[in-house]
Amino acid sequence: MENIKYFDHAATTALDEKVLQEMMPYLTTNYGNASSIYSIGRKAKEAIMLARMKVAASLNCKINEIYFTSGGSESDNLAIKGIAMANSKYGNHIITSVIEHPAVLNSCKALENMGFKVTYLAVDKLGRIDLSELERSITRKTILISIMFANNEIGTIEPIKQIGNIARKYNVIFHTDAVQAVGNEMINVNDLNIDSLSMSGHKFYGPKGVGALYVRENIPFLRIIDGGHQEKDKRSGTENTAGIVGIGKAIEIATRNLDEYNEKLREFSNFYISEVSNRISNIKINGDSKNKLAGNNNICFAGVDGSKLLHELDKRGICASSGSACSAGLINPSHVLLAIGNSPNLAKGSLRVTFGKENNIEDVKYLVDSLEEIVTKLRKV
Ligand SMILES: *Cc1c(COP(=O)(O)O)cnc(C)c1O
Fold this sequence. Notes:
It is built from 13 helices and 12 strands. Helix 3 packs parallel to helix 4 and helix 10 (306-315) crosses helix 13. By secondary structure, the chain is α/β, with parallel strands linked by helices. Bound molecules: pyridoxal-5'-phosphate.
């Protein structure tokens, strides 16, 4: 696996060495069940509490507003289905956007099958929802707005503060899928009027299979998993102690290094975009250059097949993505790239490059050189 150049940090990230070290005792000697009263059980319980404090601190919320889950998908399901079902006596209308992650879109679809009504807001060509359309969509029956913090495919950051203000004005609960934003953006749920937020450990150098959900105190939501009443009876199952310790450590590291990290990613992105623009013709840069995740870059190469492009890059040891990882293997053009106005053909020639911690400028140069060569070759045949 030497010589892998990894540019797919929006799909997942490598586990940070310091995070692994923090997790190790809970995978080995401290294997106690956090519900047990003897010392190795109590140690697990304390470790979970410490992780909960770290996650809460990073969002500026209360410790008892954090619930640990198995990842971003479960957090989205628990928030959207749980809030909708617990609040159905107030109404049955939900507002979301067309560019959400499948964990949100398919949770909404499931609720539609149960009789809920869902409005899917369109986005403009930069990928941003229209705030006046959001406001116009709210009815007396609207109980939940779910808009992602930042898009996984094109990196566009939604106008979260304004959405939070609108939700507050109409007394509607506001959930945000912040899986791409946590670890990349400073998030204060109180400043932003966010009532519920999803995150996933493996997107910010933590372990896979662990996530967290923040839900503001006093907002009712139903659990999805019944059992032994863990996580204040909102998410049963023996706690994933090592994973929870890992997400706590990962968020602590990410929060501490945020400015420095973003500065580095911005430098790589600026270099990448300007080099590709100068050296390769007939491209379209997707997303909102003014409001985007620093390391997320999505470009369509006209007349190029995205999956062939990925295979050629892979031959050179380069990991990148076409559209989203979740739909990899499918030849359907991305719903996000279509929603921002790309033709299906152009959308099929997209390449998402997401930079991260272990990249350096030499890697980015190698990426651009390889891309120029491959795109020229693919356009000839
Ligand atoms: C990765 C991702 C998810 C899913 O998270 P998992 O932990 O992989 O289940 C949800 N939403 C967004 C925006 C994502 O990028």
